[in-house]
Amino acid sequence: MAGVKVPRNFRLLEELEEGQKGVGDGTVSWGLEDDEDMTLTRWRGMIIGPPRTIYENRMYSLKVECGPRYPEAPPFVRFVTKINLNGVHNSNGVVDTRAVSALAKWQNSYSIRVVLQELRRLMMCKENMKLPQPPEGQIYTN
Amino acid sequence: MAENSGTDPTVDSNVVENAASDRTMIVVTVKTPKDKEEITISEDSSVAQFKEEISKRFNAKQDQLVLIFAGKILKDGDTLNQHSIKDGLTVHLVIKTAPNDTISSASSSGTPQANSSVNPSSAPNDSTTPDTGPTPASTQPPNLLSGFGDLSNLSGMGMGSANFMEMQQQMQRQLMSNPEMLSQIMDNPLVQNMMSNPDLMRQMIVTNPQMQQLMERNPEISHMLNNPELMRQTMELARNPAMMQEMMRNQDRALSNLESIPGGYNALRRMYTDIQEPMFSAAREQFGNNPFSALGGNLDSGVQPSRTENREPLPNPWGPPGTTPLESRGTGASTTTTTSAGGTAPSASNPLGINASGLGNGVFGSPGMQSLMQQISENPQLMQNMLSAPYMRSMMQSLAQNPDLASQGSNPTATTNPSQQQQQLMQQMLQMFAGGGGGSLTVTPEVRFQQQLDQLSAMGFINREANLQALIATGGDINAAIERLLGSQPS
């Protein structure tokens, strides 16, 4: 349905359903932060660290914010769980839009799942897969 | 429909388990990256109960299970309702394997790396494994060894096999580029502990396959390693860069005396000519065009050698003598330093004594040395390995800048005492390694302290050699130098 502008809420509801049904390969998960959030703005994501990387066996929690112009505009993504990854600010976990191609070249057919999966792919890159990580369980406080 | 809450003490027995009759049962899909199972459970269940079911189905312990739904981790105390988990929805499951080795290795770097990798009990065994990780290590076992790879490399003189090379190189690169790190490592009491254990050090060195090869071909090395005194002294030196520098300078000075011995120079030169060809051609691969132009640098005798790779047999023994010895020394140093101590006797007070003996035998004359040379020239890879170790470079630069050291390295004398050679060699090497970053000798001490030397000899200290050493040790302070001289006379 390329070119059709789907209203924001429809899209987000669809994504909500997909998140609950576990569409995808099971390595990422997403859902509303607050089930009562009628604006469907604040989302939570989870990325399961890919095997054979330093992120293996860890679960990374993220906050995804879908603004009013979503899906025309990309969402804001930030890590909650501390991570050492290229493209993620060390101090607050904010994901640099330019570092993630899905965000840099956002299309309205993309979704939260696409972003999460892209981040997971980044974890598997040579330049990232061996970066020393902070101890498990730490989160960004700001 | 047995009640199973009693079997699990963590589950609140008041909560109704899935056996209850008038609760709605829902079917939830539980998905792992590999697997998918459908679990039937009561709508009102807690996450803990849910996990119980899952642990049965997936054959894993409950505390290994991590459940994720809609981007949130389900905690044991929550209920499925809380998370709006309804019939037909999918929950993601991660089964945690044993606690992460990757974490422990990830947290180690630099000094801590030496820390985590130092494990005296398992050290000798572990050091054989080649796969050492670079500072951001990947998994634990390699990380354990990375410290060894590095330290054994200290003594291995960068003769790591091609397997080791990358890791060691990286490590060395980091170390060399960051002298603070090196001193950190050296300061680390664990490292010092380890280094004060001669057996350990010896083990490490011995298990390096390159060293083993080397030892086969050159029994002198094994002598060296087997001499605990020597090892201890070496490690002492390794620990204390200041001491090493002093030793180096001692040897510098000792060597410079060689020049004044009639015939000595010729002997040196002869030797170099024998060696320099294969060495140089091997080195040429590594360095390309003009590797030893740096080495062809200043001579303190005032004769500026042709700063080229003038490989021709030297027509004028006293003309550019520095060049050849220097250049071949450059390669010679890097390779021969591993097997032969170039220096004369370590003691300042008797350089000439030792020098005089064994003239003409030459370090290079010894069969071991020659075999090493052959080995080196046959195996450019080995050469390359050695030469590309960063501290090799710095050592060679130092050599370049200090022609005395260079000629010292090929000192033909002191063959009578191979273990001494090795010892000095080790000292040199270790000093180079530790002090290479910061210790470039641009102006020879003799020149620097010319004035002080004159003063000292006017005062009646005729042993120029000792004078110079004292001056070097005290940094040019005449009074302190005098005290040194007076205090060290018996030696």
UniProtKB/TrEMBL annotation, chain A:
<keyword id="KW-0833">Ubl conjugation pathway</keyword>
<dbReference type="Pfam" id="PF00179">
    <property type="entry name" value="UQ_con"/>
</dbReference>
<feature type="domain" description="UBC core">
    <location>
        <begin position="7"/>
        <end position="142"/>
    </location>
</feature>
<dbReference type="InterPro" id="IPR016135">
    <property type="entry name" value="UBQ-conjugating_enzyme/RWD"/>
</dbReference>
<dbReference type="InterPro" id="IPR000608">
    <property type="entry name" value="UBC"/>
</dbReference>
<protein>
    <submittedName>
        <fullName>Ubiquitin-conjugating enzyme E2 variant 1</fullName>
    </submittedName>
</protein>
From TrEMBL, chain B:
<feature type="domain" description="UBA">
    <location>
        <begin position="448"/>
        <end position="488"/>
    </location>
</feature>
<dbReference type="InterPro" id="IPR015496">
    <property type="entry name" value="Ubiquilin"/>
</dbReference>
<feature type="region of interest" description="Disordered">
    <location>
        <begin position="102"/>
        <end position="152"/>
    </location>
</feature>
<feature type="region of interest" description="Disordered">
    <location>
        <begin position="401"/>
        <end position="421"/>
    </location>
</feature>
<dbReference type="GO" id="GO:0048471">
    <property type="term" value="C:perinuclear region of cytoplasm"/>
</dbReference>
<dbReference type="GO" id="GO:0005829">
    <property type="term" value="C:cytosol"/>
</dbReference>
<dbReference type="GO" id="GO:0006281">
    <property type="term" value="P:DNA repair"/>
</dbReference>
<dbReference type="GO" id="GO:0005694">
    <property type="term" value="C:chromosome"/>
</dbReference>
<keyword id="KW-0158">Chromosome</keyword>
<feature type="compositionally biased region" description="Polar residues">
    <location>
        <begin position="401"/>
        <end position="419"/>
    </location>
</feature>
<dbReference type="InterPro" id="IPR015940">
    <property type="entry name" value="UBA"/>
</dbReference>
<keyword id="KW-0597">Phosphoprotein</keyword>
<feature type="compositionally biased region" description="Low complexity">
    <location>
        <begin position="330"/>
        <end position="349"/>
    </location>
</feature>
<dbReference type="InterPro" id="IPR009060">
    <property type="entry name" value="UBA-like_sf"/>
</dbReference>
<dbReference type="GO" id="GO:0006511">
    <property type="term" value="P:ubiquitin-dependent protein catabolic process"/>
</dbReference>
<dbReference type="InterPro" id="IPR029071">
    <property type="entry name" value="Ubiquitin-like_domsf"/>
</dbReference>
<dbReference type="GO" id="GO:0031593">
    <property type="term" value="F:polyubiquitin modification-dependent protein binding"/>
</dbReference>
<keyword id="KW-1017">Isopeptide bond</keyword>
<dbReference type="Pfam" id="PF23195">
    <property type="entry name" value="UBQLN1"/>
</dbReference>
<feature type="region of interest" description="Disordered">
    <location>
        <begin position="291"/>
        <end position="353"/>
    </location>
</feature>
<feature type="compositionally biased region" description="Polar residues">
    <location>
        <begin position="128"/>
        <end position="143"/>
    </location>
</feature>
<protein>
    <recommendedName>
        <fullName>Ubiquilin-4</fullName>
    </recommendedName>
</protein>
